[in-house]
């Protein structure tokens, strides 16, 4: 891996940030700071497990997509064997980009510069003028595409470029209990419905990651019309109820909104709700059956949202799930990916309805997405100002909260849902990576 030169002054500043998080304080400038961005690339994204793709995006042999870890463009492909491989999208001869399309199907990749050919699993198999030009001086086995370590959970493909990173199962830890709400809606799991929405925004990735780690505080303000017009299955007075659940030492967190009297698994077709009761554990059924809204983040930059949405205001809503990736491309600038996840075994009618609800609410041009993006961009712009260097934000909500002893799920679980405990956990883990503790 590349060297990591960070000045003593920067190291001291990062330690100061770490100390402040424990007191419920976090500096504004980190949400739009060139030095912070550079350190994040080296210490966070080069060491963490980062989401690459959902297996259903590459269902057939030869299917591939291109994604990123930090500034490394990767090919994520299903090889002819059926296995999934990730490789750096760079020819080993002179460094040309191999795949110029973001998705496609190919058994082999041929460099457009000098013609080196690789299998979609990364092995070098063809070198023009091999005999005449190289005279046996290279062994093709030594010059395959640079491999990236991958592991999967319930259809999610993660990659890491740190050879010493712990197994993905250990990295996710007990948060898998909550991920199952999005990924195991039935015995066959979930799949993406259509290609991802994909755009660039003047937003720092951390603002979006925090928001989706369980920020129910903004909803009655930023999305107030959703309550007034009947799009949401809750009200401003009940929206704060529920639980904030985080996994200490991991950075992952989820907000579970609960509305008293809300029917179990409301928004799912009854046959799908029955399937979930069979496929999930009794503890998961107890939690998820009474969950209205579930909004969570897998550290560092993968988020999910599930909620019922009433396409016709006032009528019963349909559940949709959005999965979102925030790829940082500069200080205060993010490449956004957004997918719609649907239960694989659900009816086509339900999948269409869920996709329509997702599109109207939280796709690229979704009504509530625009609310968030406008606020996030303004926060990012403010965070980059000169005076913001000396400003801190308060993260003191729920500082004295104790774990709900009756909650059957794992982690540090507190009430109400509107709480800063998930965010303190998120930034504590971020600071672990930034200060070289991981």
Description of the molecule:
- With 438 residues, this protein is α+β, with helices and mostly antiparallel strands.
- The protein has 2 domains: 50-160, Rieske Iron-sulfur Protein, CATH 2.102.10; 173-434, Naphthalene 1,2-dioxygenase Alpha Subunit, Chain A, domain 1 (Alpha-Beta Complex).
- The protein is 28% helix and 26% strand.
- The protein is built from 13 helices and 21 strands.
- The protein has helices at 8-22, 34-43, 130-134, 168-172, 176-183, 205-211, 219-222, 224-228, 270-279, 282-288, 348-361, 367-383, 421-434, and strands at 25-27, 50-54, 63-69, 72-78, 84-88, 103-105, 108-110, 117-119, 124-126, 147-153, 156-160, 190-192, 197-201, 242-246, 253-257, 293-298, 302-309, 318-330, 333-343, 392-394, 412-414.
- The strands form 4 sheets. Strands 12, 13, 14, 15, 16, 17, 18, 19 and 21 form a 9-stranded antiparallel β-sheet that branches.
How many angstroms does the end-to-end distance come to?
15 Å
**Can you give the mean pLDDT?**
94
How much helix is in the residues?
A: 25-40%
Level-2 CATH architecture of the largest domain:
Alpha-Beta Complex
Number of helices: 13
How many distinct beta strands?
21
How many structural units, i.e. domains? 2
Percent of residues in beta strands?
25-35%
Largest sheet: 9 strands, antiparallel
What would you call the structural class?
alpha+beta
**Poorly predicted ranges (pLDDT <50, ≥5 residues)?**
none
Please identify which CATH superfamily of the largest domain we are dealing with: Naphthalene 1,2-dioxygenase Alpha Subunit, Chain A, domain 1
Tell me the Rg in angstroms. Answer: 23 Å
Remind me, CATH topology of the largest domain?
Naphthalene 1,2-dioxygenase Alpha Subunit, Chain A, domain 1
Overall 3D form: globular
- Could you name the CATH class of the largest domain? Alpha Beta
């Amino acid at each position: 891996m590349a060297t990591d030169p960070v000045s003593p002054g920067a190291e001291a500043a990062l330690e100061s940030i770490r100390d402040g998080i424990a007191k419920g304080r976090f500096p504004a400038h980190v949400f739009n700071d060139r030095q912070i961005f550079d350190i994040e690339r080296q210490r966070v994204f080069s060491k963490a497990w980062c989401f690459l793709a959902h297996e259903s995006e590459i269902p057939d042999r030869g299917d591939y997509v291109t994604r990123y870890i930090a500034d490394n463009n990767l090919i994520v492909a299903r090889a002819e064997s059926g296995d999934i491989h990730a490789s750096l999208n760079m020819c080993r001869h002179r460094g040309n980009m191999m795949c110029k399309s973001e998705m496609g199907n190919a058994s082999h990749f041929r460099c457009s510069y000098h013609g080196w050919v690789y299998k979609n699993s990364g092995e070098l198999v063809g070198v023009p003028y091999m005999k005449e030009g190289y005279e046996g001086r290279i062994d093709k086995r030594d010059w395959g595409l640079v491999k990236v370590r991958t592991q999967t959970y319930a259809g999610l493909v993660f990659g890491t470029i740190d050879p010493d990173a712990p197994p993905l199962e250990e990295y996710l830890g007990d948060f898998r209990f909550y991920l199952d709400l999005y990924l195991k809606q039935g015995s066959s799991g979930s799949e993406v419905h259509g290609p991802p929405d994909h755009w660039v925004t003047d937003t720092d990735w951390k603002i979006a990651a925090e928001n989706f780690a369980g920020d129910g505080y903004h909803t009655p303000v930023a999305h107030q019309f959703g309550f007034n017009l009947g799009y949401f299955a809750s009200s401003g007075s009940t929206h704060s109820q529920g639980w904030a659940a985080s996994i200490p030492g991991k950075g992952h967190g989820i907000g579970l909104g609960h509305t008293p009297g809300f029917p179990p698994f409301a928004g799912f077709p009854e046959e799908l709700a029955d399937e979930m009761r069979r496929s999930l554990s009794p503890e998961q059924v107890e939690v998820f059956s009474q969950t209205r809204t579930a909004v969570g983040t897998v550290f560092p930059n993968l988020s999910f949202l599930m909620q019922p949405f009433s396409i016709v205001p006032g009528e019963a809503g349909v559940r949709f799930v959005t999965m979102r990736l925030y790829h940082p491309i500069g200080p205060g600038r993010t490449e956004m990916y957004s997918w719609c996840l649907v239960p694989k075994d659900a009816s086509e009618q339900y999948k269409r309805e869920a996709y329509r609800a997702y599109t109207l609410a939280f796709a690229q041009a979704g009504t509530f997405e625009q609310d968030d993006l406008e606020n996030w961009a303004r926060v990012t712009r403010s965070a980059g100002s000169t005076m913001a260097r000396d400003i801190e934000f308060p993260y003191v909500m729920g500082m004295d909260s104790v774990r709900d002893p009756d909650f059957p799920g794992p982690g540090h679980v507190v009430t109400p849902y509107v709480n800063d405990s998930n965010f303190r956990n998120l930034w504590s883990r971020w600071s672990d990576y930034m200060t070289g503790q991981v």
